[in-house]
Design brief:
- With 404 residues, the chain is of the alpha+beta class.
- Among the domains are: 160 residues, no CATH class; 88 residues, no CATH class.
- Strands 3-2-1-4-5-9-8-7-6 form a nine-stranded mixed β-sheet.
- Strand 2 and strand 3 form a beta hairpin.
């Protein structure tokens, strides 16, 4: 009998699901009463089927069900004893609240966040730095209102916008809210609740002076770009130290006006003008932090690109082109499951010492999702795994009179 350590009694999919605690999923389902009228297709089984669909990149309910049927002899390893029909999966995507899958994502994230930390950047305190941005996903129907005008050749399709906040050290979504693509980004700021001393960075689409004042009173720093048509009152001009980055052209105090309960108020902020030689552009930043150096403020905003990279990673490896439902709840479930899949692959990547490109790792998992391969051993040294397989085959027929 083969003793190859590269093959084990669990498919790769089952090894990914080891990060998912079934008992905790059951408790989340009980909290939301998600399984109240369910006989067989529980929340956990729903999650497994949707994860399979996301990893395999299926384009329809039929593909998802047929794919599972083709691997029916392996589903016991996934904790399944029931194969759903298309109608069952469709009804579950419509009826079971997407909030359940939000809580599942957050629970997996909280339970494994110690593996996600990355403290290589010593210039910034990444533990207290948070980045905010949004990404729009186009829809096949006018389910949610899309942004922009109607095209000449007909009506525009719907769009859903995901507003995301990530911690710079962990590079994983910490807070997510969905809205119609046409809704303004600044509405997301009202959901932000961070501890004192936190620093948040976002682009100028989140312009809201009233929320800026709330962050200031809560001792939360923000860094953003100033709008070109912003009206402000100039205050003190600060001296720029000699050792400051030559790109910093001006560091000054300004006052922004806003209304609260029909009362005119002023917000004191700092305005930094910076010229980027690489792009030959002049950028204007505003912040309520008067303690950090001007060049540190510019570095914080530059760090915001990290969340753009995360969006690119999600969209390239788990493209949301086909949805297994034509309602908002089904769409939100699929987006949440895509984020769970992204988190599971990231955890595998963090646990393996050998460096792998994220896209290569996703491709490998997608091709061998239901194969019985020890994912960790294989990823650590794929070449050695092949050599051991060849050596084992030679030893098997070494003393044989009739080698094959």
């Amino acid at each position: 009998m083969s003793k190859d350590k590269n093959f084990i009694g669990q498919p790769i999919f089952s090894q990914l699901l080891q990060f998912v605690d079934k008992s905790k999923i059951d408790r989340i389902a009980a909290k939301h009463k998600a399984d109240r009228y369910t006989k067989q297709f529980t929340t956990y089984k729903h999650l497994v089927v949707m994860l399979y669909s996301v990893f395999e990149g299926v384009s329809s309910l039929r593909e998802a069900v047929i794919g599972f049927l083709a691997n029916s002899y392996k589903i016991n390893h996934l904790g399944l004893d029931y194969m759903p029909k298309r109608s069952t999966l469709s009804d579950a995507n419509k009826r079971r609240s997407s909030k359940v899958f939000e809580d599942i994502y957050m629970k997996i994230y909280q339970d494994n966040r110690q593996f996600l930390s990355d403290s290589r950047d010593s210039e910034l305190d990444l533990k207290r730095l948070f980045m905010i941005d949004s990404t729009t996903i186009s829809l096949f129907k006018a389910i949610l209102k899309a942004a922009g005008r109607n095209p000449i050749n007909g009506k525009k399709k719907g769009g859903i916008k995901a507003h995301v906040m990530i911690n710079a050290q962990e590079n994983m979504p910490k807070l997510v809210r969905y809205s119609a693509a046409a809704r303004h980004d600044r509405n997301f700021l009202q959901h932000i609740n961070l501890p004192e001393g936190s620093i948040m960075v976002f682009d100028r689409a989140y312009n809201d002076y009233k929320q800026y004042a709330r962050f200031t009173s809560d001792n939360i720093s923000f860094v953003t770009r100033q709008k070109k048509n912003a009206v402000y009152q100039q205050g003190e001009i600060f001296e720029i130290p000699n050792k400051t980055d030559s790109g910093v052209q001006k560091d000054e105090e300004i006052f922004l006006s806003y209304k609260e309960n029909d009362e005119e108020k002023k917000l004191r902020v700092r305005r930094i003008t910076y010229h980027d030689e690489n792009s030959d552009k002049t950028l204007v930043f505003i912040t309520n932090n008067f303690e950090l150096k001007a060049q540190t403020i510019t570095l914080i905003y530059k760090k915001r690109w990290q969340i753009e990279t995360l969006f690119k990673q999600l969209k390239q490896n788990f493209p949301l082109k086909y949805f297994l439902g034509d309602n908002q709840n089904a769409i939100e479930i699929q987006i949440w499951v895509s984020m769970i899949a992204n988190l599971l692959v990231t955890l595998i990547k963090k646990k393996v010492k050998r460096k792998w490109a994220f896209s290569n790792l996703v491709s490998l998992i997608r091709m061998h999702l239901m194969d019985y391969i020890n994912i960790y051993r294989f990823l650590e040294d794929p070449e050695q795994s092949w050599k051991e397989a060849i050596k084992e085959r030679k030893n098997l027929y070494e003393n044989s009179l009739f080698p094959t």
